[in-house]
C-alpha cells in the first residue's frame, strides 16, 4: 500500500491539551512523592547524625576521663527570623574553667529541625540546665540547652525522667498537628547510650 498524504490525520488541539494536562498531573504527583522521599531521608540522616554525635561525646568523656558538654542551639533559619534547633556541638569542660569545642558544630540537613516542645523533646523543653557563660561561643543564646556526659559514660540527667529529641521537618511546626514522618533519639541517663526510634 502506498503512502497517501491526504489520508494522514493529525492530533486535534483538544487531544494535545488533554495529553499535556495528563502529563502535568502525573508530574506533580511524582514530584510530591519525590519531595516526601527526600524529606524522609533527611530526617533519618539527621537522627543518625545526632545519635552518632552523642555516642562520640560519651566515648570522648570515657577515653579522656573528662566531662563533655552537649550544647543544642536554636539558630535563625535562612530566609526567616524564626529560631529552630538545628545545630549541636560538643565542648570539653576542663579543670581550668575553659570549654573548648571538641570539634566543629554539627548542622542538621536543610529543612530538618529538632522539635522544641517538651512533650516531643524533653532534652530541650524539660531540661532545667542553665545556659553556660562562654564568650568564645557565638551560637550561645538564652534558648541554648545543655547536658553533660561524665567520665564514667553516664550523663548528669535525672535518671527518673525519659530523655529524648524528636527530629521532624522544619516547616511542620504546628504543635497540635504533629507530622507523620519523624524520628526520635532516646538517651539513657544512667548509661549515656542512645537509641533511634523511627515510625
Task: Write a structural description.
The protein is α+β, with helices and mostly antiparallel strands and 199 residues long. The chain has a single domain (13-197), classed as minor pseudopilin epsh domain (minor pseudopilin epsh fold, 3-Layer(bab) Sandwich), CATH 3.55.40. It is built from 2 helices and 8 strands; from the N terminus they run H-E-E-E-E-H-E-E-E-E. The protein has a 4-stranded antiparallel sheet, covered by helices on one side. Strand 7 and strand 8 (194-197) form a beta hairpin. The radius of gyration is 25 Å and the shape is elongated. The model has no long low-confidence stretch (mean pLDDT 87).
Provide the structure class.
alpha+beta
CATH superfamily annotation: minor pseudopilin epsh domain
Total domain modules? 1
Total number of helical segments? 2
Radius of gyration: 25 Å
CATH C-level class is Alpha Beta
CATH topology: minor pseudopilin epsh fold
The tally of beta strands, per DSSP, is 8
Strand content: 15-25%
Physical arrangement of strands within the biggest beta sheet: 3-2-1-5
Mean pLDDT: 87
Biggest sheet details: 4 strands, antiparallel
Amino acid at each position: 500500500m502506498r503512502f497517501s498524504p491526504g489520508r494522514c490525520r493529525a492530533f486535534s488541539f483538544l487531544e494535545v491539551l488533554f495529553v499535556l494536562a495528563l502529563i502535568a498531573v502525573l508530574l506533580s504527583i511524582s514530584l510530591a512523592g519525590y519531595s516526601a522521599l527526600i524529606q524522609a531521608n533527611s530526617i533519618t540522616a539527621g537522627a543518625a547524625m545526632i545519635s552518632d554525635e552523642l555516642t562520640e561525646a560519651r566515648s570522648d568523656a570515657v577515653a579522656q576521663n573528662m566531662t563533655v558538654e552537649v550544647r543544642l542551639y536554636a539558630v535563625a533559619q535562612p530566609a526567616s527570623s524564626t529560631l529552630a534547633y538545628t545545630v549541636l556541638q560538643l565542648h570539653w569542660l576542663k579543670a581550668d574553667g575553659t570549654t573548648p569545642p571538641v570539634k566543629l558544630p554539627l548542622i542538621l540537613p536543610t529543612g530538618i529541625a529538632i522539635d522544641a516542645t517538651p512533650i516531643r523533646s524533653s532534652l530541650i523543653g524539660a531540661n532545667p540546665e542553665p545556659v553556660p557563660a562562654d564568650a568564645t561561643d557565638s551560637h550561645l543564646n538564652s534558648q541554648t540547652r545543655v547536658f553533660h556526659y561524665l567520665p564514667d559514660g553516664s550523663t548528669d540527667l535525672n535518671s527518673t525522667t525519659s530523655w529524648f529529641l524528636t527530629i521532624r521537618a522544619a516547616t511542620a511546626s504546628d504543635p497540635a498537628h504533629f507530622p507523620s514522618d519523624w524520628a526520635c533519639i532516646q538517651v539513657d541517663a544512667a548509661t549515656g547510650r542512645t537509641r533511634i526510634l523511627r515510625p
